[in-house]
Automatic annotation (TrEMBL), chain A:
InterPro entries according to UniProt: BFD-like_2Fe2S-bd_dom (IPR007419), BFD-like_2Fe2S-bd_dom_sf (IPR041854), FAD-dep_OxRdtase (IPR006076), FAD/NAD-bd_sf (IPR036188), G3P_Oxidase/Oxidoreductase (IPR052745)
Protein name: Glycerol-3-phosphate dehydrogenase
Pfam families: DAO, Fer2_BFD
Residue span, FAD dependent oxidoreductase domain: 4-358
BFD-like [2Fe-2S]-binding domain: residues covered: 406-463
From TrEMBL, chain B:
PANTHER family, A to Z: ANAEROBIC GLYCEROL-3-PHOSPHATE DEHYDROGENASE SUBUNIT B (PTHR42949:SF3)
Keywords: Oxidoreductase
Organism this protein belongs to: Thermococcus paralvinellae
Keyword field contains Protease: no
Protein name from the UniProt record: NADH oxidase
Superkingdom as given in the UniProt entry: Archaea
Segments passing through the bilayer: none
Pfam families xrefs: Pyr_redox_2 (PF07992)
Domain FAD/NAD(P)-binding: residue ranges: 8-300
InterPro entries the UniProt entry points to: FAD/NAD-bd_sf (IPR036188), FAD/NAD-binding_dom (IPR023753), Metab_Enz_Cyan_OpOx_G3PDH (IPR051691)
Entry GO MF terms: oxidoreductase activity
Length: 496, 417
């Protein structure tokens, strides 16, 4: 008999757990997500870094300290197996004042304790060799070559696709409304789409992990949202070669200046604690963006003019009571595992969290896991026109002319790329077609013009492939429909 | 490279009014022409401009956008001009001053075209909400004016029912009318400047449909859960600085951004074409040739025009330039006379004049003025105008004899009478 596992939350954490557990013969895994697609919560908007594992104090935050470096090492394997876009460009934590070196020494020491390889403090001369455009007053830096960058939602998508290929069932647009517990044991999950039976319930609900935990009767922690805002600039603006951090403060690692993987200069985030009930407030603010601008300028004085911005956005980190990741099998409720408060470095730690949860299942829940004889560790990325050589274009176009048609002119995304993305959406069970689902899989709409030319084309492709009317296509799930009807709908008085 | 290799005298990039006019004219000159466009159809933005007002100068009759473009497309067919639609140029290579390579992809495959001259007519793109500093939620219901126009007039999709329009440029005003005609409530047009941004005839729309216009105001924030629910508006002072305490919210489900156009010149900057920061388009001579020999530009990728007639005119001039270029193995060297911007002139094109031919100067002023003289001091030319407005492009003809009077520069300035 198989042990039924329900994982709540298809973000980077839930997805990673699902992938790790999909390896075992005797588990039946259900991944439950309230949004229309995977990775749309905390995973969607963050700095997209694979951190170095040096800045979490192992005495205060043992889980973070342990899982960050372990996650960093695992990502090297996962990006390869799953073809996730990434770069390993290293980080520099820049010292602007003499006192900053004390903090850098502390970080170096902590890095050593956490087992981070290759770190060292570099002097002014070496810093300017590595980053000629850093603040001319910079005095030196802590160099952490093992830091990388990744596409966070592409990562979630890749992991979920692989998990599904290995038998995981995904339930999208499925909101958890209750957890059934009988005689101190979990029995399953109540949702808007009916009851999902489960022997093990894993709470990876991000910002809502405290509310899910309460549904199981466990309420020793709270999650509050901490907002971070970002600016992304047009392509062609020279950014740093490495991820640049200021010397950190107790509350935050500080505003990062980086060239993100698609080549755009990005700055952010600040850290603003929001009231507990602001868990869906991802609005940008004047004050927040201004703060990011000022702080970024401290390490990167040559910021482009404001009109070179192509997007601003905000993300929320789930800050738990106590500050450390909460990853444990709860004793009061047999079969209930909290994976909560996965704030930064959650993206980095995610693969390690997956293995941690597997160990908890074996060790604390006493389930002997049996490996599948055939488990597929690989997943192929969709075609990206912008990565093709001319001869490859011609070969593809011969097979399918859609690959010769450019949809997104800024990022060179072909209709063929979009059609593959739609196929993959269907593969993991996306029911409500959205422009965002295509965007995160292809990069269409994320360039200079922000989709003002290609959004309409994508809407029509989605409408055709899903067999619905164009105005029912959404931007980001139900409630964000592109239109209200055909052009005569108001005159006929039929609009809702 | 496994691409199919083609050879032409002229490659016209962009099948809108500038490109169509250029291709037709170049073919009429007897040149071997290839026209490329990335849309499913030729015509550029015109097929979605279902309102009248096109062709008054060029065809001497008032046409809609589809009618205007149809006439040119008919010429393209009659003249048997080679063209590709759904074709995207990936790269322009400047092989030498006499040869260019245009690499493009299409559903028929990837191609490499060797050509003597290029006429670049790729139009403009619209500024979007992020570029004008609007903060808040990133939700459904935010469209650029052109995007809403494509949705409504090409695909028949009604975006929403309560609309706020940001910017009073022509496209925004025309879309205000379009929404009103479809039964939507246009709750306001918000304009940053103290005067409207569109042509006078389009500003009339607001009165016709009783749409409030807020001058010296800006939208600073948009809020909503899944879709726009409200936008926050603030008044600005004469230096365009926000005035604290003036903010108010407007409830709406749709926000249309009509905040100006930016010439699309990415493929040109890639090969070192010099860009004029005032126009956003290339620096050109009086044949609309850029600083890279053999590359000519026309239409909104040269500068943002108000009237399609001028766009077509520029296309034809660029075709003439290409003809001269090909006939002479390059444009004959000149002592070029520089057109300088004087008082209240924000932009002026072309940048260099030869004195060998008559020229239309296209220019815009910085701020509105009444009872003015348009003055060209070096050549002793004065034109009286009752009014000049930033929204209305000036088109001034200078005769070659006039230009030849200048030594090395001609200043264009607006002075009070």
């Amino acid at each position: 008999m198989k042990t039924k596992v329900a994982i709540i939350g298809a973000g980077i954490v839930g997805a990673s757990i699902a992938r790790v557990l999909s390896r075992y013969e005797n588990l039946e895994i259900h991944l439950i997500e309230k949004e229309a697609d995977v990775g749309w919560g905390v995973s969607k908007a963050n700095t997209a870094l694979i951190h170095g594992g040096y800045d979490d104090d192992p005495d205060k935050y043992p889980m973070r300290a342990k899982l960050c470096i372990k996650g960093n090492r695992l990502w090297h394997q996962w990006v390869k197996e799953l073809e996730i876009p990434h770069i390993w460009n290293g980080a520099l934590i820049v010292a602007l004042k003499d006192e900053d070196f004390d903090e850098l020494e502390r970080l170096l020491e902590r890095g050593k304790r956490n087992g981070v390889p290759e770190m060292r403090i570099i002097d002014r001369e070496e810093l300017f060799h590595l980053e000629p455009n850093v603040n001319p007053n910079a005095l030196g830096a802590l160099y952490v070559p093992i830091v990388g960058q990744i596409g966070p939602i592409p990562a979630v998508i890749a992991i979920v696709e692989n998990a599904v290929a290995n038998g995981v069932k995904v339930h999208l647009e499925t909101e958890v409304r209750g957890i059934k517990v009988e005689n101190g044991e979990v029995k399953g999950v109540e949702t808007n789409n009916g009851f999902i039976e489960a022997d093990i319930v894993i709470n990876a609900a991000g910002l809502y992990a405290d509310e899910i935990s309460k549904m199981a009767g466990i309420d020793y922690f709270e999650i509050h949202p901490r907002k971070g805002e970002y600016w992304i600039f047009d392509e062609g603006i020279p950014g740093p070669n490495h991820v640049l951090f200021p010397t950190p403060t107790p509350i935050s690692k500080g505003v990062v200046v980086t060239t993100e993987i698609s080549g755009h200069l990005m700055i952010g985030p600040n850290a603003q604690d929001l009231p507990k009930d602001y868990k869906d407030d991802t609005s940008t603010t004047r004050g927040g963006l201004e703060e990011v601008w000022q702080k970024a300028q401290e390490i990167w004085p040559n910021l482009p003019p404001r009109w070179k911005v192509i997007r601003t956005f905000a993300g929320l980190r789930p800050e738990p009571t106590g500050g450390d990741f909460i990853i444990k099998a709860e004793e009061e409720v047999q079969g209930f595992i909290n994976v909560a408060g996965i704030r930064s470095p959650g993206l980095t730690s995610a693969p390690a969290i997956g293995y941690e949860v597997r160990d908890i299942i074996e060790r604390d829940l006493g389930i002997k896991l049996k490996e599948k004889e055939k488990w597929n560790p690989y997943r192929k990325e969709i075609t990206h026109f912008f990565m093709l050589q001319p001869n490859q274009i011609n070969e593809l176009v011969k097979k399918n002319p859609a690959y010769g048609r450019i949809v997104c002119r800024c990022n060179k995304v072909s209709e063929g790329d979009v059609l593959e993305a739609i196929e993959r959406m269907k593969f993991i069970g996306v029911k409500t077609p959205s422009v965002d689902s295509v965007k995160f899989r292809t990069k269409a709409t994320t360039g200079t013009c922000q989709g003002s030319f290609c959004k309409v084309v994508i809407i029509n492709l989605l409408a055709r492939e899903y067999g619905i009317l164009p105005w029912k296509v959404t931007l980001k799930g139900k409630g964000s429909e592109i239109g209200i009807g055909d052009v005569k709908v108001l005159l006929r008085g039929e609009a809702q | 490279m496994n691409s199919t290799i083609l050879q032409y005298d002229v490659v016209v990039i962009g099948g809108g009014p500038a490109g169509l006019a250029a291709a037709v004219k170049a073919k009429e000159y007897g040149l071997n022409v290839l026209l490329l466009d990335e849309n499913d159809y030729l015509g550029g933005i015109l097929p979605q401009c279902i309102h009248p007002g096109f062709g008054i100068h060029y065809f001497r009759e008032e046409l809609t956008g589809p009618e205007f473009s149809h006439r040119f497309m008919q010429r393209v067919k009659d003249l048997k001009i080679d063209y590709f639609v759904k074709a995207r140029v990936l790269e322009i290579k400047n092989y030498s001053d006499l040869e260019k390579i245009v690499v493009f992809t299409s559903p028929e495959g990837a191609f490499e075209v060797w050509t003597k001259a290029i006429i670049y007519a790729t139009g403009a793109r619209e500024r979007h909400a992020f570029e004008i500093g609007i903060v808040g939620d990133r939700v459904a219901g935010i469209y650029t004016a052109g995007e809403a126009q494509t949705l409504m007039d090409i695909y028949g999709v009604m975006p929403g029912k309560e609309v706020v329009i940001v910017g009073s440029g022509d496209v925004g005003l025309i879309m205000a009318r379009r929404f009103a005609l479809e039964g939507a409530k246009v709750k306001a047009v918000i304009e940053l400047m103290p005067y409207p941004g569109g042509l006078a005839r389009n500003v009339m729309i607001l009165r016709d449909f009783s749409i409030p216009l807020y001058l010296s105001h800006k939208v600073v924030e948009v809020r909503g859960k899944k879709r726009v629910e409200k936008v926050k508006v603030m008044k600005v002072d004469e230096n365009l600085r926000e005035i604290p305490g003036t903010e108010f919210w407007i409830k709406c489900d749709t926000m249309i951004i009509s905040a100006g156009l930016i010439p699309q010149v990415k493929l040109l900057t890639g090969i070192g074409v010099e860009i004029d920061p005032a126009t956003g388009g290339p620096v050109v001579n009086d044949l609309l040739e850029t600083t890279v020999p053999g590359i000519f530009v026309a239409g909104n990728s040269l500068l943002i025009n108000d009237l399609v007639d001028y766009v077509a005119e520029q296309g034809e001039l660029a075709a003439y330039g290409a003809k001269l270029f090909i006939e002479n193995g390059g444009i004959p060297a000149e002592k070029w006379i520089k057109l300088e911007k004087g008082n209240n002139i924000r932009l002026a094109v072309p940048h260099y004049l030869s004195g060998k031919r008559d020229v239309y100067i296209y220019a815009r002023v910085k701020k509105p003025m009444e009872n003015v003289v348009l003055n060209f001091p070096e050549i002793d030319k004065k034109i009286r105008l009752p009014v000049v407005r930033p929204a209305e492009m000036l088109r001034i003809r200078l005769r070659k004899e006039e230009i030849a009077k200048a030594k090395d520069k001609i200043t264009m300035e607006v002075i009070q009478q």
